[in-house]
Design goal:
Elements lengths: L2 H20 L15 E4 L2 E4 H4 E7 L2 E6 L5 H10 L6 E3 L4 E4 L5 H38 L5 H34 L2
Antiparallel strand pairs: 1-2, 3-4, 4-6, 5-6
Helix pairs in contact: 1-4, 1-5, 4-5
Main location: cytoplasm
Pfam families: RRF (PF01765)
GO molecular function: ribosomal large subunit binding
């Protein structure tokens, strides 16, 4: 695994962690909160984004305008059944979700969830490091690398890992600040 391949893989892991962070509620409405909701539409699980336009008319409201009005009730049911704790309001044409301010207890829960997502991201990064180092050691064993080259390559992999873990930590700190901001 070349250094650029490793960095590319690690970048993807960081981006996946960032996407996970985006699904965590903060004090204001954000359409990405609904990214993980899928609706059973004509017998198939369909992402909500594919069925409707999501918008945030103000900081406390998410508005969902389905492309097909017949999907309105299905979308409403999927949102109500999700673990987000939202109560959708259906007016016959659009669904509005009022995003209530978070209680201190919920803020702490969401901080724990963000920490969990960050840890999952770091584990994924460490797994990539392990794979890269195993490959380097294998190449050393086969005689492609000298011992010094192997050590230098392993140090380079570790430095790359440290850089990306610091990035995940930075994203976590930013997300926690967003969550805790009243």
């Amino acid at each position: 695994m070349s250094q650029s391949d490793l960095e590319s893989s690690m970048r993807k892991s960081v981006e996946a962690t960032q996407r996970n962070f985006n699904t965590i509620r903060t004090g204001r409405a954000n359409s990405s909160l609904l990214d993980r909701i899928s609706v059973e539409y004509y017998g198939a699980e369909t992402p909500l984004k594919s069925l409707a336009t999501l918008s945030t008319p103000d900081s406390q409201t998410i508005q969902i305008q389905p492309f097909d009005i017949s999907a309105l009730a299905l979308i409403e049911k999927a949102i109500a059944m999700s673990e987000l704790g939202f109560t959708p309001n259906n007016d016959g044409k659009v669904i509005r979700i009022n995003v209530p301010p978070l209680t201190e207890e919920r803020r702490k829960e969401f901080c724990k969830l963000a920490s969990k997502y960050a840890e999952e991201g770091k584990v994924a990064l460490r797994n990539l490091r392990r794979d890269a180092i195993d490959k380097i050691k294998k190449q050393e064993k086969e005689g492609e690398f000298s011992e010094d080259q192997s050590r230098d390559a392993q140090d380079s992999v570790q430095k790359t890992l440290d850089k990306f873990i610091a990035e995940v930590e930075q994203h976590l700190a930013t997300k926690e600040a967003d969550i805790l901001k009243v």
